[in-house]
Design brief:
7-stranded mixed β-sheet; alpha+beta; Aminopeptidase; binds coenzyme A
């Protein structure tokens, strides 16, 4: 019997030296897509500040890399407390972006699964995806695949590229980590 093949991609922590590629990936999606409601891509300095805040809070920020080349960054994902107010302490929002050259190769799934496992270990109970554009089939399908359910749609709350955009809310409950 042959051993099961190890996955070719892994999710690993995002380090500061990864942020140049992270910034480029995000800039691509800001400039060409509707998943993010930002219009101007944040600078490397701004992305560094966002990453510092997230990792400084002890929240997950990961990248996907081929197992054979851990310096290569194929996407990034992170989680933040949904809102700052204290009663939201166990509710987080996830964000996930794959490099345009590696779409549909499993990076999004691996990163999101890793982030969810980390959140569960940290006692997070509810996870939200706030997805730009109800036509964002890739993101909606990715979150459904990872166990999220459709909660609702905020209609026409954004506008980008001259068209009104919905926001789709999806949610997943996390079972407590086994001790
Ligand atoms: C959403 C996104 C992160 C998915 O990343 P990815 O690495 O391509 O995802 P995966 O390869 O792991 O695909 C996982 C599942 O998502 C779904 N999916 C991915 N791309 C899809 C597409 N173009 N159309 C329909 N479903 C798609 C499929 O169900 C897929 O599973 P399968 O390949 O077993 O059928 C990527 O498309 C992306 O960066 N989109 C733009 C940014 C964005 O909208 N991010 C989300 C903000 S909330």
């Amino acid at each position: 019997m042959t051993a099961p093949e190890a996955p070719t991609l892994i999710a690993r922590p995002c380090f500061q030296q990864d942020l140049e590629v992270v910034q480029l990936i995000y800039a691509h999606h800001v400039l060409t897509g509707t998943g993010s409601f930002e219009i101007e891509p944040p600078s490397l300095e701004e992305m560094t500040a966002r990453w510092s805040r997230i990792v400084g809070a002890g929240w997950p920020f990961v990248v996907a890399s081929p197992r054979s080349d851990l310096s290569r960054v194929m996407g990034f994902a992170y989680a933040t407390q949904f809102r700052d107010r204290a009663a939201y302490a166990h509710c987080f929002e996830v964000s996930v972006y794959a490099a345009p050259t590696t779409l549909r190769s499993g990076a999004g799934s691996i990163m999101l699964a890793h982030v969810l496992a980390g959140l569960r270990d940290d006692g997070v109970r509810e996870v939200l995806a706030v997805i730009g554009d109800s036509a964002n089939a890739a993101s909606i399908a990715l979150h459904r695949k990872l166990g999220f359910s459709h909660v609702g749609v905020m209609s026409r709350v954004g506008e980008k590229f001259g068209r009104p955009l919905d926001v789709v809310i999806m949610q997943r409950s996390l079972a407590p980590a086994k001790t």
